[in-house]
Design goal:
- This protein folds into two domains: 232 residues, NAD(P)-binding Rossmann-like Domain (Rossmann fold, 3-Layer(aba) Sandwich); 67 residues.
- The protein has 328 residues and is α/β, with parallel strands linked by helices.
- The termini are far apart.
- It is built from eleven helices and twelve strands.
- Helix 3 runs parallel beside helix 5 and helix 7 crosses helix 11.
C-alpha cells in the first residue's frame, strides 16, 4: 500500500456525515475517502452519491454490526484512519428499541475498533454527543470535558458506552484515538424526524407543531458546517487521547426556537400564522431539561470558533427544507 491517507468515514450518508464527507472529498483530493453506511431510513444517499464523479471517493454499504464484513473491509483496504459517525441517534427510537441502539452504537463501535487495531496505523476519531453528560438545571454551569457521564436515555447510554470503549482502546492498546462531543446540530440534510425539520414540515403542511411538555427544555444549537470545520481541525491537529466538546454557546429553549422559526416562516410568506400551529404534547420519558457544553478547550488549544451566524444559518436552513418539501 502507498503512503496516501485512506480515511474511512462511517455514517457517510447521515446528516453530519454527508456534510463531512463532501467537505473532505473536496478539500483533500490527495486522500482516498471511503464512505460507509448501511443506508437505514435516516440516511439519504442523494447527498453523497454525487461524489462518485470524484476519483478519491469510494462507497461501501455495510452494517457496522456485521463484524465479519467490517473485518474483511479493513483487510482489503487497510484504512489509515477512521472518522466514526455511524450511529442510531433518535432518542424516541431508543426508548422504543434499546437493543438496536446497543447493537449499532456499542457493538458496532467495538467491531470498528477491533478492525482498526488490527489493520490501521493512523487516527481513530470518534464523534459523540453532549447527551452523555446528562442534563443540567437552568442555573448550572455548562459541562466541560472533565464532567462525569450521567446519560438519561438508552441512546445517550449507548453513546457513553462507545466513548468508554474508545478511551479504553487508546489506553490499553495504544491506538491514536480522539473523541469529540457536540451539541445539537442543525442545518440541511437532517432527517424529518428531528426537531427542526419536524417543525418546518408541520408549518409547510399546516399541521400542529408538537412541542414536548412546556417547551422550556434548552439546547445549544450548533450549525452543522461549524461542526464540520471543528472536526477537520481536530482530526488533523489534536494530540492523541484528547477529548473536545464542540458547542456554539447558543442556548435556546425549544419553545423560543419554534417561535423564531414561526416568525421567519411568516416573514418568508410560507404560512399566514405559524404560531397558531404550536401544540404542547405529553413530555418525552426522561426528557433532559438542559444541555450546555463549554468549548473553551477547543477554542484555546486549536483556535476554533463558530463562524456561522445563527440568524442567517437558521434562515438558510428553512429555505433548504421548504425547497425540499416543495419537490415531494
Amino acid at each position: 500500500m502507498s503512503n496516501v491517507k485512506r480515511i474511512l468515514i462511517t455514517g457517510e450518508s447521515g446528516f453530519i456525515g454527508s456534510h463531512l464527507i463532501n467537505y473532505f472529498v473536496s478539500k483533500y483530493p490527495d486522500y482516498q475517502i471511503h464512505g460507509l453506511d448501511i443506508l437505514t431510513y435516516a440516511s439519504d444517499r442523494t447527498h453523497t452519491k454525487i461524489l462518485e464523479k470524484n476519483k478519491n471517493y469510494f462507497f461501501h454499504q455495510i452494517d457496522i454490526f456485521n463484524r465479519k464484513e467490517i473485518i474483511n473491509l479493513f483487510a482489503q483496504y487497510s484504512f489509515t484512519d477512521v472518522i466514526h459517525l455511524a450511529a442510531e441517534s433518535h432518542v424516541d427510537n431508543s426508548i422504543n428499541n434499546p437493543l438496536l441502539f446497543a447493537n449499532t452504537n456499542i457493538i458496532g463501535t467495538l467491531n470498528i475498533l477491533d478492525a482498526f487495531k488490527t489493520y490501521s496505523v493512523g487516527r481513530f476519531h470518534h464523534i459523540s454527543t453532549d447527551e452523555v453528560y446528562g442534563d443540567l438545571n437552568f442555573s448550572d454551569l455548562a459541562f466541560t470535558e472533565n464532567s462525569p457521564y450521567n446519560p438519561s436515555s438508552p441512546y445517550s447510554a449507548s453513546k457513553a458506552a462507545s466513548d468508554h470503549l474508545v478511551r479504553s482502546y487508546h489506553r490499553t492498546y495504544g491506538i491514536d484515538a480522539i473523541i469529540t462531543n457536540c451539541s445539537n446540530n442543525y442545518g440541511p440534510h437532517q432527517h424529518i424526524e428531528k426537531f427542526i425539520p419536524t417543525v418546518l414540515a408541520s408549518i409547510y403542511n399546516n399541521q400542529k407543531i408538537p412541542i414536548y411538555g412546556s417547551g422550556s427544555n434548552i439546547r445549544d444549537w450548533l450549525y452543522v458546517l461549524d461542526h464540520v470545520l471543528a472536526l477537520d481541525l481536530i482530526f488533523h491537529k489534536s494530540s492523541p487521547g484528547k477529548t473536545y466538546n464542540i458547542g456554539a454557546d447558543n442556548e435556546i429553549s425549544n419553545l423560543n426556537l419554534v417561535e423564531i422559526i414561526c416568525d421567519l416562516c411568516l416573514e418568508k410568506k410560507i404560512h399566514p400564522n405559524p404560531r397558531k400551529l404550536i401544540s404542547f404534547v405529553s413530555d418525552r420519558l426522561g426528557h433532559d431539561r438542559r444541555y450546555a457544553i463549554e468549548s473553551q478547550l477547543l477554542r484555546s488549544e486549536l483556535n476554533w470558533m463558530p463562524i456561522y451566524n445563527f440568524n442567517n444559518a437558521i434562515s438558510e436552513t428553512i429555505d433548504w427544507y421548504i425547497k425540499k418539501f416543495s419537490k415531494i
